Amino acid sequence: PPMLLSRSLRSGRPRLRYLSSSTTHAAVCTELGAPLQYQLWDLPTIKPGEVKVRVAGTGVNFAEILQAKGQYQEMKEPPFVPGNECAGEVTETAPGSKLSVGDQVICLARGSAYACDVIADEAACIKLPEAARKRDLCEAAALLVNYGTAHLALENRAAMKQGDTVLISAAAGGVGLAAIELANIMGAGKVIAAVGSEEKLKIAEAKGAASEGVIYSGIDSKGVRAAIKSAAPGNLDVVIDMVGSHVLEPSLRSLNWGGRGVVIGFAGGEIPKIPSNILLVKNISVSGLFWGAHMIHDPKTLIESANKLVKLWIAGDITPHICKKVPLEDANTAFELLESRKSTGKVVLVPPG
């Protein structure tokens, strides 16, 4: 077997190890709240319905940071390999597989994707068309969680219609930028970005948001309400919120009669309470979206959405915004970028070689 270099993400000390076909290198959570360790990781034997994928890129999501800290709703006991979305090439299949060695796929790994190789459920792999061979697979790795979340939020939960005025909070993040693109493709009359800085507003504007947006840092909920009124004098039809905190309630108060709000996350760090009288008086609805749980409860909807998004990506209608590609062995750096709010769009981990 080949001899490969392995090192600890914490110590940086190199060590040579022999790598067998059932072993890979991965960024491993060995202790909740501690830095990930780049080390050898044993792969399970492929079972019927599974494939082995050589990873070209893995998208990094905030949920994985929370999971590595033991703060996510889906708890895992160490040691485990984080990572829920990757793209790469099939290198091994089980008998009866519909995929073939050499196929390029996007993989919804639901864990284990921070690695050079992953054993994945074939049903969670989306085969890419031949045209994808001309594209950067790191873009494919940045596609499904962000765009999938944005797509289901706009189409399924908010039932967005042509001409709607849409407010998207955390709009310079991965889901936010995806939502801006998709809302415009779906015919929104106006897309308003709510962000934390002027710099992030410019990034959102470049993706198709209106030039006047909402900068919610340094102001309270009344300030947010006033900023929304200025950017959308006719009020809003749809709110896609990923901030919570002091942003959600004034956004809902800014909805028109019959407006729809979708709660996706709480990046602001505070889970706000929603006064139910707002829902009654304005006849508005507010729903939540946990995209990842669709793979368990409604995989058909998720896969249909994913296939639509792949077609849009291949056609060039959507382009994932990758702010930085980080070597897999430096996965903690990727976490720091997200936690410090220095990232925009998507951070992608790239395995060596």
Helix-strand pattern:
EEEEEHEEEEHHEHEHEHEHEHEHHEHE
Low-confidence stretches: 1-20
Structural class, judged by helices and strands? alpha/beta
Instruction: Classify the helix fraction into a percent range.
Output: 25-40%
Described by strand count, sense and barrel closure, the largest sheet is: 7 strands, mixed
Principal-axis shape equals globular
Number of extended strands: 17
Question: Gyration radius, to the nearest Å?
Answer: 21 Å
Distance between the termini: 17 Å
Strand percent estimate: 25-35%
> Average pLDDT value?
92
- Count of DSSP helices? 11
- Subunit arrangement of the protein: single chain
What are the defining features of this structure?
disordered N terminus; 7-stranded mixed sheet; 353 residues; globular; alpha/beta; 6-stranded parallel sheet; single chain; 27% strand
Description of the structure:
With 353 residues, this protein is α/β, with parallel strands linked by helices. 29% of the residues lie in helices and 27% in strands. The protein is built from eleven helices and 17 strands. It has helices at 62-69, 137-141, 144-157, 174-185, 198-206, 221-231, 248-253, 276-282, 294-297, 299-315, 331-339; strands at residues 3-7, 14-18, 23-28, 37-42, 50-60, 86-93, 104-107, 117-121, 125-127, 165-169, 190-195, 214-215, 236-241, 255-263, 285-288, 322-327, 346-350. Strands 5, 6, 7, 8, 9, 16 and 17 form a seven-stranded mixed β-sheet that branches. It has a six-stranded parallel β-sheet with strand order 12-11-10-13-14-15. Strands 1-2 form a two-stranded antiparallel sheet. A hairpin with a 6-residue loop joins strand 1 (3-7) and strand 2 (14-18). The longest helix has 17 residues, at 299-315. Mean pLDDT is 92; it is low at 1-20.
